[in-house]
Amino acid sequence: MTLTDGTYRLGPSTARLLIKTGRAGLGRRVGHDLTIEATRWSGEAVVVVGDPDKSSVSVTVETGSLEVREGVGGLKPLTDADRAEIKRTLGDKALLHTAEHSTITFRSTRITGTPQSFEITGDLTIKGRTHPVTVNGKGNGNRLLRGWATVTQSTWGIKPYSAFLGALRLADEVRVEFEAVGLELVDGPG
């Protein structure tokens, strides 16, 4: 089934939303490159195939729903205790401050391209700060879409995590990725 004009519902039942981190600093061999998944989020994509500028995307992520799925590298494997500590640290005031800022939002401002190769420019709001982000994406002609964007944490007032007096720290840039399979058409031709 090909992607057609209409409104599509987005969320964990049809798509994955991942954050991938990297390491920096002299102690980077000790740490892990993390894959973190948003488990509670929702969104909507309005698709106008023949006029992509009339298309739009909006997504809202619950900051408390971020779960560590994988840790690659490091001297020791990532443990359940490590995952719990990372989740606690994510909610910390220096990072996402989830008590005060319970959501992250993205609203498109411009979409160009085709369902097979597209670019979505929009406003990303994290911790009450809004800055533009560009998402690059590809589709296979069916309802399978993949995309990615690079986000520099410090732009939104997020201090990248560090340990061992700064010898180990997360890189300031993280990669946000999505993969949508079998999008649910809620309005439009089926």
Automatic annotation (TrEMBL):
Residue ranges the record marks as coiled coil: none
Organism domain of life: Bacteria
Gene3D superfamilies from the UniProt entry: Lipid/polyisoprenoid-binding, YceI-like
A Pfam family hit: YceI
Xref: InterPro entries: Lipid/polyisoprenoid-bd_YceI (IPR007372), TTHA0802/YceI-like_sf (IPR036761)
SUPFAM superfamilies: YceI-like
All copies of domain Lipid/polyisoprenoid-binding YceI-like, residue ranges: 7-183
PANTHER family registered for this protein in UniProt: PROTEIN YCEI
Recorded family membership: Belongs to the UPF0312 family.
UniProt-recorded name of the protein: YceI family protein
Organism: Streptantibioticus ferralitis
Taxonomic lineage of the native organism: Bacteria, Bacillati, Actinomycetota, Actinomycetes, Kitasatosporales
